[in-house]
Amino acid sequence: MSTNNLSYLRLAMWIGTAGAILYILASGIGPLPVLAQQPADVAGPSSEPAPTGESAAAAPVPSPIGKSINIWSLAMAGGLFMIPIFGFSLLAGTFVIERFIGLRQSRVLPEPLVAGLGQLGGSQGTFDPRRAYKLCQENPSAAANVIRAMLLKVGRPVSEIESTVAQASQREADKLYANVRWLNISASLATMLGLIGTIQGMIMAFHQLTILAAEQDRTQVLAAGIYTALVTTFAGLCVAIPAAFFSHYFEGRIQGAFREIDELIFSLVPQLERYEGRLRFNRHAGDGEAATSDRPNSGLTSPALATPSLAAKE
After folding, report:
1. Each residue of 159-185: pLDDT tens digit?
2. Potential cystine with 305: which of 116, 121, 271, 301 (Cβ 3.0-4.6 Å)?
């Protein structure tokens, strides 16, 4: 199975899981059955017969009222801190979708680019930097940007080429990590907001106990305040856990992609050693074409002079 198919399979799996979780949350918690001990038959007054089990069973039993939990109403009762938590849920969902699109193989390491460079560097002495540069222009991606930076250093010492590759790889990795950081922020702040919302709710619940009248049920008031206060922690964790999971998932994909890019570049570096000190690879500012020169200090060449021989100067 190809890498693209695996990515689509993972995407379908996580979308299905997210849909199932949202369905469960939207449906709410059903009413809980109230079980009570059925009283024994008691003989009626004077000569009246005692009621039988059939007559007692035939009597309609009133359904429990107010025994179910409505998730939406409970979320509204969570207080002011539910608003930023909801905002972070939208932020996390948006960047999860964006990163699935942005980290496609065609945007990071296109297969045509890998196949084309493999053909160019198939045997020693056949690698053409101009064709490789044009191939990178035809397949814009993170890998193409790193390889183009490397090709612009053709003719320089290998150590300088490797340093350029490391810097370009770091720049491209930072670009890919930029939106993943929003998932880390959403996971951290949603948890913190949930905790501070619960703390505020607990403070308010205990404050209510201090102003209750003596005849009011303190246990019921305290229980209602506590379970309402815990809503923010529940909501914060519902946002933080998926955001943290997808953050680590995308970081793993980025690291894996750059390992493949490093392997591709290291296979090309030996092909450039024969040009060291003999060629300079230049880029036109106007038309974006690449040119080579056998003069170390030559400047930008014109398009008409952009096809010199790549043979090493005797």
Report:
1. 888 899 999 999 999 999 999 999 999
2. 301
